[in-house]
Amino acid sequence: MTFCISYTMSQDLQKTINEVVHLNGVGLHNGIKVNLFLKPADINEGIIFKRTDIENSKSIISANYKNVNSPFLCTKIKNAYGVSVSTIEHLMAVFYGEGVDNIIVEIDAPEIPIMDGSAFDFVEAIKSVGLKEQDQLKKYIKVLKKVEIKDGPKYISIEPLEKDLIIDFELIYKNSLIRTRRREFRLSDGDLTPIYNARTFCLYEDIDQIKSKGLAKGGSLENAIVVKENRILNEDGLRHRNEFVDHKILDCLGDIMLLGHRIFGKIRTSQGGHLLTNTLLREFFADKLNWEFEYLEKKEKVLKDDSYKGSIVVNA
After folding, report:
1. What CATH number labels 140-294?
2. Which tens digits make up the pLDDT trace of 197-248?
């Protein structure tokens, strides 16, 4: 048998972006203008958020599910110094879907810009500079046991699935236009365009309540779908018929990326949201019997080697 270091298969390797990317916009909830810079990062660095408007020693926030704080209408992460970044879910979903493992996200305000309410601009920015492979294998989280969380009528679970991710999402609204919608998204299908292009949405009658909590200060018809009774207030309507449920899948995908690694498993949820997903991640990852790390395998079999920090491949 021939032994070699397994850095030959592109789907197995960690990735970062080739060059710095700059975007700007406004925060959906705080209404503050923000500059966003995406920068290449070293292997195993993961996804790091950095507030450039904060003293350097306190400005770093790791994109980790344990750092999620107050996941109400968005996902917010906070470090030990109380420094936070909110509405990270759309950007995190793009990192998941595009295969970005290591990246530094610098912003000069406490919220990621909402752009047009979807992930489209983030995808285009990353594709404009492309990705580069790094000399380290990706690790995946393999689901070993089913874990489920129930909160009244709300439900979410994760269960084993071989070498793929499925998100089965059911959306239930009393609104006659949104109604009940369900869609199963399979990552291996390859086309994430409908997910990336799906915008955030709200009911017209909920706007005053949301604003009373000091949120949605930057919200408008330019960055959100607004549904009033049985009609959509945006002039162009929906981008596609599943846009409501696809946006929920986008949010879920971004929240899952906070595990720090991609998952081989199936997620089922009814009326899910940021809080429910984070509750599931905490419950799931707390017990080592629920999961294990795995490398993506093709023709080669990856073996862990304690004497080497990477991995060794046996070519049969």
Report:
1. 3.30.1700.10
2. 999 999 999 999 999 999 999 999 999 999 999 999 999 999 999 999 999 9
The answer to whether 22 is a known catalytic residue is: no
pLDDT in tens, 103-131: 999 999 999 999 999 999 999 999 999 99
Catalytic residue among 29, 90, 247, 274: 274
Residue 142 has pLDDT above 80, yes or no: yes
Q: Do the domains 140-294 and 2-137 match in fold?
A: no
Distances in whole angstroms, Cα of residue 164 to Cα of each of 139, 188, 254, 283: 13, 6, 16, 21
Give residue limits of the domains in the chain: 2-137, 140-294
Q: Which of 110, 70, 77, 119 is nearest to 247 (CA)?
A: 119
CATH number of 2-137: 3.30.230.20
